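haha ok so turns out i had the wrong file open the whole time. this is the CORRECT one, sorry everyone. sequence first:
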Amino acid sequence: MAHLCPDVRAWTIASVRYDSPVARELTHALHREQVATFGTADDPDTTPAEQFEPPAGMFLVATCSDRIALACGGWHTAGPTTAEIKRMYVDPSARGRGLGRWLVDALELDARRRGMTEVILETGIHNRAAMALYISCGYALVEPYVAGRDPRINRALGKFLPPLAECE
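then structure:
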């Protein structure tokens, strides 16, 4: 069933705890999709919720005017000035409306406000929509940063964050 949020302006993005029921529902949907696509995936329940707590990170959930949450993503500190984006997910019924880009932009802005100058992430090589999104957002391939990742499954990407403008 297609979701009836016509464009990204109908959505609201809010910061939530990573272990909140709505975040768990979305990260488990992401996990199921990753396992179905790649045969393996990191269990979202093994990530400590504190990893996404300000000021060292943030987890966002996007809801439509009907208050149904259909997208999420977070960032956490991966180094002194490096943020890692994780758990990006948009429900299939809400894809193709610019919501993923809106989430990435919001995560990057918060990371920049907290002193991060670089962002890294991983995505599956067969997730063409995610690869296209990240490349269109200025990400480029980087060396893998997680030991033991299978390069036939995972791709690491990164980008430098521009300095904040005074009005941001």
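The first strand starts at residue 12 and ends at 15.
again sry for the mixup
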